């Protein structure tokens, strides 16, 4: 989009971003026009409105529209004492705050995960809070109507989104809201989100000791940047801490399905493996076998169940441990192996749910470990919405990793679980806006139009 000629008075120039400092010390964020030097070598700055140049206007959202769950992150600026934002943006921000931030639940299924809120985060030279909200993807049409009725998107021309729904719902978003979805790559968004959150939350990463022992199980924070447990903080307080994450590492992303990635550096990653046996498999199996209505209900059933009543164990076959190959007697030999027994009527739905969970976790753990071994990597990180409100799955994954690696590798987990794709989109929004600005200045292609082509 170019400036009207009558605004330029026939003089060629270029659009710039500027922070203008007022007499009271506040910075006013305005786009401006830099005109070429004249004979007296002075620079004329002409303020132009956001309708002419979109200087990443508020609000800033990131969306990950998955097959089952949609994750939304919202950046709310808190540095209002330093910046004077346009009146329209302040009104929209107030409306969003009053509705989203003042509530923890929205309608029948929308939830804001307050405990995950990140404070004092810096994005695009602004400081603020990131809020984390989720709702079932099947409710996406209702979400679009809500955004329209509340006027949340009236200042935004582009929203970065990832996941299959970014394609499925892009037409509805454009027609109903007048915005375009920039369809960010899922895996790139995932890695960008992980590294952004880990850099802003030193307590993000954790692991379990004695994961399946109800009395001895303990959760410990893992200092990823320095590869040590948080219990050593005091004795290592004077030690130089390396910046960011330490490479390489394996990421196992568990959503409806499973993707396993090898990450060797910033923007250096590849998908090494995957599986269809993930969160969707677990939830679907529980719906059919246990008559569950929701993922949460399936997890609650599994928490009360015992898979040993359903799975055939090594001791059921050998009468004890299988010493010659190093298999303890309580190792699962055949998932659901006891369902064909004559006394199967004793099996409870809770036991079936627990067996489905253990089967899913064992499969995922095996795949992730094999990738780590084949690539010579020790750090294995599990993320994804399958782990949300699901510490049982995390503990089973931790046990599987410890057992099959003979204690040489630990399963690591991240607190923000399934939100990393959405956070990566929020970070990508800054890049997209800069690319669009360059396009308007004749320095490249429009990333949104190029992405759709």
Automatic annotation (TrEMBL):
GO terms for molecular function: ATP binding; pantothenate kinase activity. Belongs to the type II pantothenate kinase family. PANTHER family: FUMBLE, PANTOTHENATE KINASE. InterPro entries: ATPase_NBD, Type_II_PanK. It is found in: Cytoplasm. Its EC number is 2.7.1.33. It comes from the Eukaryota. GO terms for cellular component: cytosol; nucleus. GO terms for biological process: coenzyme A biosynthetic process. It catalyses: (R)-pantothenate + ATP = (R)-4'-phosphopantothenate + ADP + H(+). This is pantothenate kinase. Its main location: cytoplasm. The keyword Glycosyltransferase does not apply. Pathway: Cofactor biosynthesis; coenzyme A biosynthesis; CoA from (R)-pantothenate: step 1/5. The keyword Translocase does not apply. Keywords: ATP-binding, Coenzyme A biosynthesis, Cytoplasm, Kinase, Nucleotide-binding, Transferase. Pfam families: Fumble.
């Amino acid at each position: 989009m170019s400036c009207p000629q009558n605004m330029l008075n026939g003089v060629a120039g270029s659009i710039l971003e500027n922070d203008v400092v007022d007499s009271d010390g506040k910075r006013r964020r305005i786009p401006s026009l830099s005109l070429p030097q004249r004979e007296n070598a002075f620079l004329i700055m002409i303020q132009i409105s956001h309708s002419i140049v979109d200087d990443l206007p508020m609000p800033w959202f990131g969306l990950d529209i998955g097959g089952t769950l949609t994750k939304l992150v919202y950046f709310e600026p808190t540095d209002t004492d330093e910046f004077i934002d346009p009146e329209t943006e302040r009104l929209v921000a107030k409306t969003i705050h009053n509705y989203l931030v003042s509530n923890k639940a929205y309608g029948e299924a929308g939830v804001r995960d307050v405990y995950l809120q990140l404070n004092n985060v810096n994005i695009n030279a602004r400081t603020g809070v990131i809020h984390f909200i989720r709702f079932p993807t099947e409710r996406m049409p209702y979400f679009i109507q809500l955004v329209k009725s509340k006027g949340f998107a009236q200042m935004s021309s582009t929203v970065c989104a990832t996941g299959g729904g970014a394609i499925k719902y892009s037409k509805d978003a454009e027609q109903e809201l007048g915005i375009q979805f920039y369809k960010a790559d899922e895996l790139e968004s995932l890695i960008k989100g992980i590294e952004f959150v880990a850099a802003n939350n030193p307590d993000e990463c954790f692991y379990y000791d004695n994961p399946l022992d109800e009395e001895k199980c303990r959760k410990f924070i893992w200092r990823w940047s320095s590869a040590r447990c948080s219990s050593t903080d005091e004795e290592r307080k004077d030690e130089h801490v390396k910046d960011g994450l330490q490479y390489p590492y394996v990421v196992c992303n568990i959503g409806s399905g499973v993707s396993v990635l090898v990450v060797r550096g910033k923007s250096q990653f590849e998908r090494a493996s995957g599986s269809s046996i993930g969160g969707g498999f677990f939830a679907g199996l529980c719906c059919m076998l246990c008559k569950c209505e929701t993922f949460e209900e399936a997890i609650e059933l599994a928490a009360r169940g015992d898979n040993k009543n359903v799975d055939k164990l090594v001791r059921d076959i050998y009468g004890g441990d299988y010493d010659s190959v190093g298999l303890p007697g309580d190792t699962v030999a055949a998932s659901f192996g006891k369902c064909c027994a004559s006394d199967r009527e004793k099996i409870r739905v809770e036991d079936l749910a627990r067996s489905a969970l253990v089967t899913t976790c064992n499969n995922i753990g095996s795949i992730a470990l094999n990738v780590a071994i084949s690539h010579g990597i020790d750090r294995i990180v599990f993320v994804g919405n399958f782990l949300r409100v699901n510490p049982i799955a995390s503990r089973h994954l931790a046990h599987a990793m410890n057992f099959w690696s003979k204690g040489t590798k630990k399963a690591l987990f991240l607190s923000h679980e399934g939100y990393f794709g959405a956070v990566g989109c929020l970070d990508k929004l800054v890049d997209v806006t800069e690319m669009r600005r360059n396009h308007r200045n004749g320095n490249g292609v429009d990333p949104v139009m190029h992405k759709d082509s």
